[in-house]
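Before we proceed, please read the two lines closing this message. Tell me what the token row says about the fold.
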Amino acid sequence: MFRIIDYEATEPVRKVDRIRPIPITHSPKKLKLAHITITIPRRDANENDVELIATVGVRGVTGTSQLLFKIFRDGKEIFRTQVGIESDPASEVNYVETFQTIDMDVGKGKHRYQVTVENITPGTEAAVVGPISFSGLAIAPSEKDHDKD
């Protein structure tokens, strides 16, 4: 069995807002989307899992953009994924991307997790239109005494 040791979630943009899109910067610059802080107690240090889930609504503006999403812990990249976004109005232009990772055996203390996006395709444009959500759930094994029959 497992027990929850910490949880945090943020939703900086709750719905699609095509009127005020946020342009996605081109690499190597990153657009910071959201951050959370997860605290790992000393007794659970290095024996835990932190499940991170992000959802980001994006829109193709010109061309077909390749967007690179990254998650960082305390400034160090721990995850990345890439997705193609089209801008053809006869096809898809709005996308909602959800991705997750598990950060295992995190040390004790407060840890800042951050999700970013960048456009890695020159000559194309894409934007964040919402929603944006980011959550982290830290779990650890239950006490061994509770697992005995």
